[in-house]
Amino acid sequence: MRATGLVKEFGGGGLRRRRPFRAVDDVSFAIPRGQTLALVGESGSGKSTTARMAAHLVEPTAGRIELEGEDVTRLRAEALARFRSRVQVVFQDPFSSLNPRHSVEQIVTAPLRYQGRRVPGGERAFTRALMERVGLDPDHSRRLPRQFSGGQAQRIGIARALAVDPSVVICDEAVSALDVSVQAQVIELLVRLQAEQQLSYLFIAHDLAVVRQIAQQVAVMSQGRVVESGPREQVFDAPQHEYTRALLGAVPRIPAEWDAARRAMVEQQTVQEEMA
Q: Domain named ABC transporter: which ranges (predicted)?
């Protein structure tokens, strides 16, 4: 996926001829196949609006989005439906993005019905295989979202995104609502799925500690603009912009023994979930 000169303005006009608010201003990026680009910045920096434009949930005021060489900026009807199968979104709050009245099977297979697809072996077998793939018990396919923990519900959201075999997955603050130990488990899952499927991720986050675990490329946004971008090591170890340095300076430093204890706790919880 490639974006060039993205601009998004809101409001403006009216009797007082108010100027529109420019939430995103001339943002460009490229995500190679099988890699992760993280968009980072404070709340209001424009990163989520950029993600929504990339997902075709919001139409840009100006600029261009390309997917596999095709301009997908202003798709309609059947072309938009095809785009939906190539680009999927994992949202921040798993419970608000899952229909509370639908079972896991209904949720996971909803994109298939939207696309008019049939799967060999039927939807039940398809759902069970996908649940197993994201670390959920296939026997729970008829449960409702409220019967799962937050981390498990986010795995359902990831399974739904994978159902139509996308090439790009946009993770909009996908782990920020989870406990730290559960965050690590979901990040580990995303990394594994990326390696298996050569997925490209646009990863929206404000937590630089999380970004360092998953991203190969980082773009730092402030007031609607990208102020710094480059390989992860370059941005983290030799930041050029004062805003990037300020963000990095705000990241808590965790003593090595605390980090080792945290990792041990994550491994123990993972084993317990697998045995449950």
A: 1-248
